[in-house]
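Researcher: Can you fold this with protoporphyrin IX containing FE in place?
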Amino acid sequence: MLTLVFSVGAIIAISFAHWIYNWRNPKCDGQLPPGSMGWPLLGETLQFFAPNTTHDIPPFVKKRMEKYGPIFRTSIVGRPVIMSADSDLNYFIFQQEGQLFQSWYPDTFTEIFGRQNVGSLHGFMYKYLKNMVLNLFGPESLKKMLPEVEEAANRNLQRWSCQENVEIKESTARMIFDLTAKKLISYDSEKSPENLRENFVAFIQGLISFPLDVPGTAYHKCLQGRKKAMKMLKNLLQERCENPRKQQTDFFDYVLQELKREDTILTEAIALDLMFVLLFASFETTSLAITLAIKFLTDHPLVLKQLKEEHEAIIRRRQNPESGVTWQEYKSMTFTFQFINETVRLANIVPGIFRKTLRDIKFKGYTIPAGWAVMVCPPAVHLNPSRYTDPLEFNPWRWEGVELHGATRNFMAFGGGMRLCVGTDFTKVQMAVFLHSLVTKYKWKLTRGGQTLRTPGLQFPEGLHIHVTEKNEGNAAAE
Ligand code: HEM
Ligand SMILES: *[C@@H]1O[C@H](CO)[C@@H](O)[C@H](O)[C@H]1NC(C)=O
Ligand SMILES: *[C@@H]1O[C@H](CO)[C@@H](O)[C@H](O)[C@H]1NC(C)=O
């Protein structure tokens, strides 16, 4: 009897040791990149998400780069992952989209975003949806949108200047959400009985949380938020279906027309998922970028001075100073674009871009096995001292004349290759036009907050509170 207990015990112990051994030493037909797989199942997930206040390369990545080099292996959210801080590998990954690599995001993300969102669609379907989106946010549409963006900026700034205190992260998120929702689905937050954005806020708060779906948890609220938002979107689409409009002006019109076609592969479910992703992708990212931009301007008076000069010169060149920003003026905002580049370089709003390998891949002597996840780490590129001197320094002037030496390999705030962010131009228009109104008509003082935290995504735990006042016309020149 005793021997039986011993041998069963021994077998269990040996299989367990064997399992741990396999966990630590994954099978690979070649040389795996160095690194540690952490604890069984948990991997290095906790270390990866550990909050830190540094603007530098996330400590998780930095420590491992020092130990193993720019390409290393780890395990997060239950998956073996190769992390890349190597600009050649990053470039290769972006170029080989759809051939050797495919978009992949952790399962909790897929669960939350719906299965058919843009991020996880492939091939034909994906190109087709992308064209629909580009139609709405491409240069031609943006040209027409310019006055609307400016009007929204002016209206909001005017309102803020009547308040004692504005929290910028929340206020810009509201401004951008309202604008995007109006463009996409003609949703007017002031006329609607239900608050669509509220559901998105609940959704975002639980986005990066432990995936336990029981009442009370952040994850549960997140799923509920999505459910309610999806229901509202569905009702809005239904309404439009019953009252079609003559002129096609928004995404719903576009979707309805497409759904009527016989050869279409679009379904209502896909259209609604896409709508959700677009609304989400647009307001959270851009409001973070604007909030950080205001913080940088507050801390760097010389930058603010030059930005003001650029925008005041634009107004001086106009026949009528009250006329709105034209496309030509927008295109001429050279320093503003340098400022925006520098802001998103340091913001690192997207700390990781995920892909999955479709085949075994050989690169620089290493083999990345098929089916593994790969994470491109933009901060490691944006904060690399051999690409950007004094990388932690906020210095918009470093972008002067940068077009000359093709910087795309060293700049991936909006991703790269085929999946480059479709909202890039929209973001730039919104930021530039908002800054134009802000620096020409208003001044502000920081009142509270402004501290940043990375988990590893950028956050403002206490927000950024400012006091905005309208510039007194008579003093404008002296400001
Ligand atoms: C500061 C603002 C923004 C940043 C930093 C940003 C960043 C990114 C990045 C890095 C990607 C690539 C993801 C990947 O390769 O897996 C991406 C994709 C995407 N972005 Fe943005 N984005 C911003 C604003 C926006 C806006 C305003 C919209 C919507 C109008 C938008 C819509 C999308 C969509 C739909 C995709 C998926 C495209 C695809 O998979 O092909 N983004 N974004
Ligand atoms: C940030 O990470 C560094 C390096 O791992 C660590 O020494 C420091 O304590 C962390 N800081 C915070 C605020 O968590
Ligand atoms: C901003 O960065 C992009 C990507 O590297 C580059 O093409 C563009 O020229 C930069 N803009 C400015 C004004 O430096």
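Model: Folded with protoporphyrin IX containing FE in place. The radius of gyration is 25 Å.
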